[in-house]
Design goal:
The protein is of the alpha/beta class. The chain contains twelve helices and twelve strands. Helix content is about 35%, strand content about 20%. The radius of gyration is 21 Å and the shape is elongated. The chain starts with about 25 loop residues before the first helix and ends with a helix. The N terminus and C terminus are likely disordered. Bound molecules: S-adenosyl-L-homocysteine. S-adenosyl-L-homocysteine binds next to strand 8 and strand 10. Its EC number is 2.1.1.192.
């Protein structure tokens, strides 16, 4: 296990896209339009198109004077995401869309439709520098951070799709490619735009936005202080540092005690329950003693303000690891619950189109 790729925090290989309307705060939008010689009210007008109607092409914004549409497009609406293809599964309930970014990097987002809600799984970075050995994205390293607008625009696209189906996008999970808290400022700014009421944002409930992290403890504390009531998910995957140092190499920097302490701070500060993600891997982290230790540690640290999401491992191509057998999984769940901690098993949507956890865009890269 000593030959893991090294953790990369910030070594972007390629460039950020040009500034987009969705990179800007409400005040910045007004000054950007001012610089183009447009009055303040145009900023709100354009925001109503983008955030309220999910439209990103100024040429179709017919309430803008015709002469200004091209100017606004050229200055503030560079094309961020170009659809390469979309694949459906689960009887059309799950759609994986492959996007090309301005510099040719490929990115995916996954839209999952459930009765009464629709969840979009988005990426915060192209690639990932966290090097978790069971995750396909982690094997390829980090290409670069996504810009705020590249994150926000994934949401706009899915929101438009849901509206065209007569429904609405209700939930966002930062569980696609990348470590959201390693791209902290852009992710927080994206969360604000995803959750602010129109015309400043898409108006998705903060509680329905989940930020999932390997456990960058200082950034978890910082996130707690942002005044957002989004959901925090911590990818723990084992309750002991010895194994976690291997499964989640960032554990060498921030130990389980430190991560759980920061999660407790998050729960205390926001009043929100914390989710713990645990990919169950056969004969690696699925033993009874680990279930007992996990339940106890979580109960001690967080009491009833914690929920375990068990994810059956989705084996990546060539991986020597596999999911645990069903009876093992059932016993693991039972033991966690016996410690007073709630636990559910994540359903594995999108598996046959490689849209499941950790697999986004990896197959295309390999071609
Ligand atoms: N960097 C963030 C987001 C990653 S993806 C984080 O680590 O939380 C979201 C979840 O999918 C994480 O819990 C991640 O560990 C998990 N995951 C990655 N690859 C997986 C796989 N092959 N099978 C099951 N879960 C996986």
């Amino acid at each position: 296990m000593s030959d893991f790729p090294r953790i990369q925090l910030l070594t972007p290989k390629r460039g950020m896209p040009p500034t987009h309307f969705a990179d800007l705060s409400a005040e910045q939008r007004v000054s950007a339009l001012n610089e183009l010689g447009l009055p303040k009210f145009r900023a709100n007008q354009i925001a109503r198109h983008y955030y309220g109607k999910f439209e990103a092409d100024p040429l179709t914004m017919t309430d803008l004077p015709e002469a200004q549409r091209q100017l606004v497009k050229d200055s503030l609406f560079p094309t961020l995401l170009t659809r390469v293809r979309a694949v459906e599964t689960d009887n059309g309930d799950t759609t994986k869309t492959l996007w090309k970014l301005h510099d040719g990097i490929l990115l995916e987002s996954v839209l999952m439709r459930y009765p009464g809600r629709a969840t979009l799984c988005i990426s915060s970075q192209a690639g990932c520098g966290m090097a978790c050995p069971f995750c396909a994205t982690g094997q390829g390293g980090l290409d670069r951070n996504l810009s705020t607008a590249e994150i926000v625009d994934q949401v706009r696209e899915a929101a438009a799709t849901m509206r065209s189906e007569g429904s609405r996008l209700s939930n966002i999970v930062f569980m696609g490619m990348g470590e959201p808290l390693a791209n902290y400022n852009r992710v927080v700014s994206a969360v604000r735009q995803i959750t602010s009421p129109a015309p400043d944002g898409f108006g998705i409930s903060q509680r329905n936005v989940t930020v999932s992290t390997v456990g960058l403890a200082p950034q978890i504390r910082k996130l707690a202080d942002e005044g957002l009531s989004c959901t925090l998910a911590v990818s723990l995957h084992t309750p002991d540092d010895e194994l976690r140092d291997e499964l989640v190499p960032m554990n060498n920097r921030f130990s389980i005690a430190d991560v759980l302490d920061s999660a407790r701070y998050f729960a205390d500060t926001t009043g929100r329950r914390v989710s713990i993600e645990y990919a169950l891997i056969r004969d690696i982290n699925d033993q009874n003693f680990r279930a007992d230790m996990l339940g106890k540690k979580l109960h001690d640290a967080l009491g009833s303000r914690v929920h375990v999401n068990l994810i059956p491992l989705n084996p990546t191509p060539g991986s020597k690891w596999d999911a645990s057998p069903k009876p093992r999984q059932d016993e693991f769940v039972r033991r966690i619950i016996a410690q007073g901690v709630t636990c559910t098993v994540r359903d594995t949507k999108g598996q046959e189109i490689a849209a499941a956890c950790g697999q986004l865009a990896a197959d295309e890269k390999a071609v």
